[in-house]
Amino acid sequence: MTRTPAPRGRHARPPSAVSVHLARLVGDPRRRRLVLAGAGTASAAVLAAAVLLPGGGSGAPAPRATVAAHTDASAAPEPVTDPDEVPDALPYLKTKDPEGTIVKHVTEIRRSGLFLRVYTDLGESDENSKPAVSLCEWSTQYLRDGGDEEPRVFVHGKSNDNGSVVLANKQSDEDDCEVGETR
Fold first, then answer.
1. What are phi and psi of 156, to 5 degrees?
2. Rounded CA gap, 3 and 15, in Å?
């Protein structure tokens, strides 16, 4: 005696082939016993494997605990940093300016592609000023000391309406860090 699933309504989808097969399999009392016996045997096998296999049920730590035990808990994770930041540039510039009269103007130093950009609190009127040109020259030397054969540097100042204006730059080996007339 095979039962077909009851209709589920006028707009319902027909039952899938799998659900029809399972309904036939479980519907027959002889097959139902076989299915239950198979499920019981599979459960017993899984339980036995968990107890008898190495590390399973023997009081050994779980895999995660084992990994955690092998990890040095005192080692703090590395802080995530911006790849464009150049943290060792400012200390280098401070060695060039022991009194700090020029380096005090630096607000940020970043990589931008092939360029090193030095952002300062200097204004637009400080174009080609001693602090701007010095920062450009020192940054160029910093890049050379780091192995850069063609250093490119931009020293930026603040502008009220134009973002970060260029106060000094070195775009090629022939440049002397001074910007040309832009007005």
1. -110, 150
2. 13
